[in-house]
Amino acid sequence: MHHIVSKTDKTFKLEVKYINAVKGHGLFAKGSICKGEFVVEYRGDIINDAELQSRRKRYHTSSAAFIFEFKWRGKTWSIDASREDGSFGRIVNDDHKHPNCEMKKIDVNGKIHLCLFALNDIKEGEEITYDYGGEDYPWRTQTTSIAANTKAEGDSDPSPRSQTRISDATGQNNSPQQIVTQLQNENEIFVPRLRQTKSIIMKDKDLEDSVELFDSTPESSDDYFTDTTSESDFDSDANLIPNQTKLQLLYDELDVDDSGSLSSLDCDTATPEKRHSLASEASGTEEPCSSQNAIDGVVVSAYQKRGVSRVYNKRHYCLYCCKPYAKMARHLESSHANESDVAKALSFPKSSKERKKQLDYIRNRGNYVHNAAVMESGKGELVPYKRPSKEAQGKDFMHCAYCQGLFARKVLWRHMRTCILQPQSVPLKPGKKRVQSMCIYTGPVPSNMTKQLWEVISGMNLDPITDIIKKDKVIIDIGQHLLNIGGLSAKNKRCVRDKMRELGRLVHNARRVTSLKTMEDCVNPKKYMETVKAVKYTCGYESDKFMIPSLAKKLGNSLLQVSKLLKAQGLLSNDKQRAKNASEFQDVHQEKWNEMILDTALRNIREAKWNVPALMPFTEDVQKMHTYLCQVQDEWYKSLSESSSTKAWMALAKVCLAQIILFNRRRGGEVASMPLSEFFSRDTSDPHDGVDWALSEVEKKLCRHFSRIITMGKCGQPVPILLTPKMLCSLELLVKQREPCGVLKDNGYMFARPEAMTHFRGSDCLRGFAKACGAKCPKSLTSTRLRKHAAVLSTVLNMTETEMDQLANFLGHDIKIHREFCRLPEKTLQLAKICKVLMALEQGRLAVFHGKNLDEIVIDPDEKVLESDEDRIIQEGHCSSTVYEPIAEEALPPAERNDMPPPPKRQKPPSPSPPSGPSAVRPCFQGQTTHKKNPWQQTEVQAVERHMMRFITSFTVPGKSDCEKCLKAEPGALKNRDWKNVKFFIYNRITAYKKSLQCT
């Protein structure tokens, strides 16, 4: 019911495959389908009988075959599915003997729908068929023994039938997938000859092309994109040129044979100069299209004119015989009709849009092969999609990534937006340079690099730096070297691309300020000072300061790496001079680089970090983000479970990615780039029984509660990722809904982007959720700061060396890094701990804290220190300034205070009544006095804990201002206490808390 209402097909269970040139395409099952299950709906325009008769008069036979007639509520109705809307129902073929589906009428909200239901269990790979009804279909009386190649290359044929019933009126020949060319090596192909009839002109939007557009074809030595269309100035088998008289005169002069070829030309023997001179003589124009001097190199000739009229003498190269022809369609029909792709093109009616697309595809591919040969040789004339008005250089033209036509770079972006062969599933990124970068990879691979390195270079923006990289052999060699070491992963390719552009930028700037021209010149020991000058200019050196000090540090390592590579190449090729220069450069570099560049760069890096505030996440923000992510996860999990939605899939994937990073304190890139294969290969076995005795009951429960995945971390180290049951369920749902939600099969990332080959970025997800959850400081909620937050807070625990090693390994760094960097910020250490020593020295009280560590020293910055004995006597004799409280314990160290015996009991002084509050005045007595202790009541303890618990858990003694805030917040419960009582109470609680941790 969902697919009927939403007008969608079961793309996760069905797929369209090409069968052969006669039968066309068919619908096949990607998975098993049970008996009685809904398969697909036959969708189209519902018309009455009068409209049916009207359309039959206008439609071609192939279009009329898509009309399905049926009876409903006593009237005759029809569904016209001739319009190519991409639905699967119109692709299903007829089988009146052994169909596996039947058509049923379904009434949904008063509207009729024709749906196919399975008659029996359908196996994976089996073709979906049903009985069209009637007995007068011509293909039922005509059969052929053409093998139906229903599987891609390397797959077996799942169909049990050896023969396929065919006809020229099946209605399957002009299905939208017929456009896609998948060449087959077939010995005999039956091509039905369709009679020429008047066809209706359908102005509909072109359908989305199949993924077969990106299949390679066997006739070419390179990878080509199949199928194409064009609107160039060449002719077709239809009458596209209005002035036939002038064109015929031109062909007579050029001696065109019956096949449409120029008999006097041959692509293997004729040089570009000969072709040009012949065209100039034939045109008779006074303005030659090119000069003899401009022929040297790769050029694109301009179109020619005879007076004010244009001369249509453009020639295209045949894909099969590599010869230029003016009438390519006629030549293909007469000479290469047995080729599979030509046969499919000729199977369409003449003057039809599909026929023109197929012929244009073959024509563009032939021109592409010729252009690739010219570019590789570095000399010749290119065949463009449209000839320019003036002669142009070949470097100003590029091939389209979809139709393979050759376009000017300036207008390529405009064509890409309207190219008919552009798949709708591949969004076009804005920007002219992005389009050019995408199309450059479709060109021929240069002979001086591998295809993998060419892919890396093709991803660069087209600028002067990229041009330098393509022409510099040393930069190409260093790129291939890094590619061999790091592998072909997407992450390593990005690193290689950055390193190559780093070196290209150095050469680009060196040409501006020095005599250095290539990368090899930069590692010449005799020109070392020029190299230093180029590095300073590149990094923005001015008045003993680098604008980009980190780049200066990287360039030093890169230059050393280049010199090592050149030395190895010199030794391998027995080039002693190159090896000697590289070795001498290393010696000079080792002695002078630190002095000239590195020391200044490192000093600039250190100085830049001095006054930068160290952001640390608030514990409250982390908890708030955890809660928010759980709520969002529940919402999108429910939404994706109910229906397959790309929006819900993307939202749930982002939430899971942020949750895993936050929970595991992992680097964002490690989790985001986790392959899907690692999720499937995770260890699901139970813990070993032999080690259960070493675990507590809680630890055993945790082992069963969490799941564990191992992925690649920094420097190729394996790092674990722990998943809660809730996270695991969400990931399993994401895996299940990948294909229905538009995730490509070839995308191997767990957190893949739909309709793309990349993955979501963990930093972007964390940043978005940090702002959405309402955190106080969203900037602090990054993966790096969260990792440091966990490491810093772990320092308050009494962890053994082994436990510290385990935590460091889980976080993915060495124990030395953990001890050096994962600690309290230097600012906090100096303000909170070291200042205690300075204050004690200033007050002359250092001896009072004998035997204590920094955590045990408690000094209030607001505390007043008595400077003389006279002041102390005055303070002790001031009776109205103190209250009845126990003697201040702060003057004694904690250890001594706990070990002291209780003071001797003394007789109470006579008094009419005991003091009743903090305002009660203590009577003055000579000598030492003792007072009655005032035990803390439960209400008082709860009041203090409500406001001061953070000091207890963080082992921090509060100051006077904090205690007074607590008293103001709880005036009723703490009416008998002052700020010192609160401070001493918290200090005692901290001491007891530390002892309890040591005991456990």
UniProtKB/TrEMBL annotation:
> What residue spans carry the Polar residues bias annotation?
159-176, 280-291
List where Pro residues composition bias occurs: 900-917
| Compositionally biased region (Acidic residues) | 220-236
Question: Cross-referenced InterPro entries, in alphabetical order?
Answer: SET_dom, SET_dom_sf
Q: Where is this region: Disordered?
A: 149-176, 215-238, 264-291, 893-936
Q: Which residues form the SET domain?
A: 12-133
Q: Which domain of life is it from?
A: Eukaryota
What name appears for this protein in its UniProt entry? Answer: RING finger protein 214-like
Lineage of the organism? Eukaryota, Metazoa, Chordata, Craniata, Vertebrata
The gene name on file is LOC107746393
